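FW: tagging you since you asked about this chain on Friday. Here's the raw sequence from the shared folder, copied in full. Didn't touch anything.
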Amino acid sequence: MSLGKIQINKLNLLQGKIEDVENYFLFIGQGAGTNEGTILTVNNDTDLDVALGSEASNLKTQVKAARANAGQNWNAMVYPLDGVITWSVAVAAVMLFSSCEAIVITDAVSDAAEIEAMQVLAEEIMGQYMRPVIFIPTCAAIDPATESWSEFTTSRNALLASLACDQVNPVITAWEDDQGIYCGRLCDSSVTIADSPMRTATGSIVGIRSVKPVDKDDVAIDMSVLSALDAGRWSVPQWYPDYPGMYFGDGNVLDVPGGDFQVIEHLRVMHKAMRKVYPLLVGKIADRSLNSTPASIAVHKTFFMRPLREMSHSTNILGRVFPGEIYPPKDESIVITWPTNKSVKVYLAARPYNSPKDITANLLLDLSNSVE
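HL: got it, structure written out here
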């Protein structure tokens, strides 16, 4: 004999939205006596004179430049230092409760060890929080009383020589607000994270560039200096002859020669994919629906591929295609293997689009219709 029994269970299929942190940067630098030691959130409406003090500071200069160049819907965190707390301590404090895509250190680095410390901290954050982050440091501007452009280039490039720090994206200080401008270009929501800061289609950088900085010999900066700094792996502004405005070069990452992440757009795409896949993997711990049967592997290939499919969405309007962040994944873009009966390895391949950065036009004269 038995009695009727009903049970209703709520099943979580992990189909919801995974929140984004892309374009959300943390700025850390010496404050000017206001809100020092405090974690601030700022956006387009924030009065920076109230938040960061009415006195001038490099931190406020960079944040203001970032906001101007990011445009609409810009948001960021700012941590003004008090002269006692170091940037590494500030990062640790923020990571306790918040995540971000990049950490911008606005106080100039003075030696290679400080840049290596950023790489170490990025790896520690990944290990502790499973958060991939990018550090964006800068250097001191030229001293026009004592330095020539040759001396400036040599000393600044020496800071990066032989470094292998693939989570660090250093920006030169040629003009005082280059770092902030560069970060703003990265956070422009009118384009994707797969778009290079080199792009010109979104217009010139926003900032005063009518006066070029000069060295001790009163020589103005030129493209030969910026080219040498770019070769040293700094991210630098640039301009084009007889073309209005100023733009940026590659977002150079301190990856090894031949590495996959020598430019910022490749690193950002991979980091986004990592952030999107991670919670899906956690949700499958000890879930027996993920097993080594062909049916389960087929289902979970589709399941784990979801972030890449979402990143690949393109828009076609009036015959023009606005590509997604990566190519649409193919069947072979994912492989699931079972080394043991308790461990699973998932391999995912994200394929970025090509980006034209060196364009050559060859013009020919067609005289085939000439009359003799």
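FW: The chain has two domains: 25-266, 286-365.
HL: agreed, and The radius of gyration is 24 Å.
FW: great, closing this out.
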